[in-house]
Design goal:
The protein has 380 residues and is α/β, with parallel strands linked by helices. It folds into two domains: 128 residues, Aspartate Aminotransferase, domain 1, CATH 3.90.1150.10; 240 residues, Type I PLP-dependent aspartate aminotransferase-like (Major domain) (Aspartate Aminotransferase, domain 2, 3-Layer(aba) Sandwich), CATH 3.40.640.10. Helix content is 43%, strand content 17%. It has 15 helices and 13 strands. Helix 6 links the parallel strand 3 and strand 4. Helix 3 crosses helix 12.
Length: 380
């Protein structure tokens, strides 16, 4: 068997070949081979594992069954009923889509008129990390100031007052929706009081409120959180429960809590290329996740791991960029230490802090183990 050094030499020659042939692609090639070689520990994100064993088991046990297609199967309907019960929203319209960007783009386009725009915090996912998916459907994204990922209701009111009293407003993109994430991109949370004030403001100005819940489970289970699914169901017009990042192979459950889905929304999903022929694939996963509180239990586990990681980081002298109660932890690290850590740990270089420091993100998930934290502790 070749030694690790021999393998590394081969990898470098492969990278050199790609550099000469395809330019920057060599970096990706080299990083991938290096990661495989070293078996680096990863705290990069919460969707780098497969799926929870009970989700896989449910898929396997039902694999030989023939069911209806496009989400009309019995397992998708069972999942809908379980989600309705968890939300205390017995009339909710629920649609299963494969991913977060797809869900955001489809829901926003379906809920807005063609000339309407969506407001978000300037750090909001649709404004930063979705490659103009929203704008591609003809809807302008309007960014307002964010504070540790959150929007202040006063900024929303000010914007809407200025817009309402602008004599040229008919020449502008018309605000039709507010988009929030729960948790935010910085792992922070809106309180029940903040959501109530925001929703009241939205209704006052005729805005729909849509909440991105790609990491919903981790927000709901965070220490100090006072929001639950029934509360959300009464304080927004639509939200989704993320599965991709919370134990599923893929899938998000889009909820219109008061039977208020846009007219012909099934067709809108189809138009966006978001309608899965094998709809059961997602329905089955949510059926498993919403059985015996699995979704909430595994999300709570991620929070427990994150709090242990936060304690570990602070005890070792690392400075937190902000105080996140969720599974995303942001740390200010000296650039020399960043370069040393990235040889053994996969994490996200979030943003520059100053000339000598970088804000780095470490993320736990439903699959994070105590053993992985012990390894990280030794590396730190």
């Amino acid at each position: 068997m070749p030694s690790s050094e021999q393998k590394r030499s081969v990898n470098k020659r492969i990278a050199q070949f790609f550099q000469e042939s395809f330019g920057g692609f060599s970096l990706l090639c080299y990083l991938c081979t290096e990661i495989n070689l070293k078996k680096m520990i990863s705290f990069e994100c919460d969707y780098n594992n497969g799926a929870h064993p009970k989700v896989l088991q449910h898929l396997l046990e039902t694999n030989d069954e023939q069911t209806l297609t496009y989400g009309f199967d019995k397992y998708s309907e069972q999942a809908r009923e379980k989600i309705r019960a968890a939300c205390m929203a017995p009339e909710a319209d629920i649609y299963f889509l494969a991913g977060g960007t797809q869900t955001n783009a489809t829901a926003i386009d379906g809920m807005l008129l063609s000339h309407e725009a969506v407001i978000t915090a300037d750090s909001g996912h649709i404004n930063v990390h979705e490659a103009t998916a929203i704008e591609a459907s003809g809807h302008k994204v309007i960014g307002l100031p964010s504070y540790e990922g959150k929007m202040h209701v006063e900024d929303l009111r000010h914007f809407m007052e200025v817009f309402t009293h602008d004599e040229s407003r008919d020449h502008m993109a018309q605000p039709g929706m507010l988009y929030l994430t729960f948790p935010t991109e910085y792992g922070t949370l809106y309180s029940a009081k903040e959501l109530e004030e925001i929703y009241d403001t939205c209704r006052h100005y005729g805005l729909k409120l849509f909440i991105d819940g790609a990491r919903m489970g981790y927000g709901l289970m965070a220490h100090g959180n006072d929001v639950d699914l029934p509360y959300l169901s009464h304080h927004c017009d639509a939200f989704y429960i993320g599965g991709t990042k919370v134990g599923a192979l893929c899938g998000e459950a889009l909820v219109f809590p008061r039977k208020n889905a846009p007219k012909a929304f099934f067709s809108i999903v189809k138009r966006h290329g978001a309608l899965m022929a094998k709809g059961r694939v997602i329905g089955l996963q949510f059926d498993a996740l919403f059985t015996d509180n699995l979704y909430f239990n595994i999300a709570r586990h991620a929070i427990d791991m994150a709090m242990k990681m936060k304690k570990m980081l602070t005890e070792k002298g690392y400075r937190l960029y902000l105080d996140s109660p969720t599974n995303q932890q942001f740390v200010v690290i000296d650039n020399n230490k960043v370069r040393a850590l990235e040889q053994q740990v996969v994490f996200t270089h979030w943003e520059p802090y100053d000339d000598d420091h970088t804000v780095c993100r470490f993320v736990t998930s439903w699959a994070t183990t105590e053993a992985q934290l012990e390894i990280l502790s030794g590396i730190l």
